[in-house]
Amino acid sequence: ILAVLAPLVINVLAGPQFKESVIVLRILAVAIVFFSANAVFSWQILMPFGLTSAFGKINLTAAIVNVCTMPLLAYFWGAAGAAVGVTLTEGALLILYTVLVVRARLLLLER
After folding, report:
1. pTM of the model
2. pLDDT, tens only, 11-39
3. What does the alpha-carbon distance between residue 78 and residue 52 come to, in Å, rounded to a whole number?
4. HEC states along the chain?
5. Which percentage of the chain shows pLDDT scores above 90?
């Protein structure tokens, strides 16, 4: 919904002079979905089941990759590049958390 309403949201909150930021908001709308799923995985599954070490390693790796790639993305593509970097990082975290949960057999995927 936020991605669809991005032009209206930007116009109302920031004004028409910020219309170039609509694409950034649309990209970050996807990141919000990933971030929300990551919060569920981390605080509702990984932490209670004692996978804090793996959780920390995954987050540290993601942070290092993000810090190293963000300047390049922002340099070449500006705010949209930075938004893509955040979205890709959150998406990668979701994939890694899912793999960890499946390997630890915390989700019953079999009948």
Report:
1. 0.88
2. 999 999 999 999 999 999 999 999 999 99
3. 35
4. CHHHHHHHHHHHHCCHHHHHHHHHHHHHHHHHHHHHHHHHHHHHHHCCCCCHHHHHHHHHHHHHHHHHHHHHHHHHHHHHHHHHHHHHHHHHHHHHHHHHHHHCCCCCCCC
5. 91
